[in-house]
Amino acid sequence: MIEANRSHWAAALPAANPGLERDIEADVAVIGGGFTGLSAAYCLKREGTKEWVVLLEAERCGNGASGRNGAMLLTATEDRYME
Ligand SMILES: Cc1cc2nc3c(=O)[nH]c(=O)nc-3n(C[C@H](O)[C@H](O)[C@H](O)COP(=O)(O)OP(=O)(O)OC[C@H]3O[C@@H](n4cnc5c(N)ncnc54)[C@H](O)[C@@H]3O)c2cc1C
User: Fold this and answer.
1) What is the pTM (predicted TM-score) of this model?
2) pLDDT tens digit string along 9-59?
3) First and final CA of the chain: distance in angstroms?
4) What's the gap in Å between 36 CA and the centre of ligand 1?
5) Whose CA, among 33, 50, 61, 71, lies 20 to 30 Å from 1?
6) What is the distance of C-alpha 23 from the center of its chain?
């Protein structure tokens, strides 16, 4: 189960896209519209791939951690993670 983002800002967004109503085919299926999935799909298209790239999000883009974080851009992380 995917918990919907019920934050104040999320409530102000337009309605999410409707769900898929038919089978579709794709060369690359990216699952999840957070930073990881959106940047993967964006970079694939930016590199000029001819492949048909589809991004599938269960709720709406930014529903997960990407739409809930503190927006801190850090220049380093803890040593234990760097190692
Ligand atoms: C409270 C909080 C504060 C944070 N603060 C910071 C910060 O200040 N700075 C920082 O750099 N990082 C921060 N982070 C970490 C950062 O937000 C995450 O590392 C990052 O957003 C992860 O992105 P993601 O795309 O991997 O995952 P997510 O953003 O979680 O995206 C995954 C997406 O996949 C979708 N999904 C899941 N399963 C399926 C499925 N089966 N089918 C379709 N869709 C699916 C979900 O709905 C979701 O939208 C924070 C995280 C949290 C939770």
Assistant:
1) 0.87
2) 888 888 888 999 999 999 999 999 999 999 999 999 999 989 999 999 999
3) 33
4) 8
5) 71
6) 21
State whether the beta carbon of 69 lies less than 6 angstroms from ligand 1. Answer: yes
Q: What are the CA-CA distances from residue 48 to residues 27, 41, 42, 45, 51 (Å)?
A: 14, 11, 10, 5, 9
Q: Which of 54, 69, 75, 81 to mutate to test the pocket of ligand 1 (most atoms within 8 A of CB)?
A: 69
CB distance 68 to 7 below 8 Å? yes
Contacts of 51 (CB under 8 A, 6+ apart): 27, 28, 44
Decide: helix, strand or coil at residue 30.
strand
55 vs 1, which has greater pLDDT? 55
- Which residues contact residue 49 at a Cβ distance below 8 angstroms, ignoring those fewer than 6 apart? 28
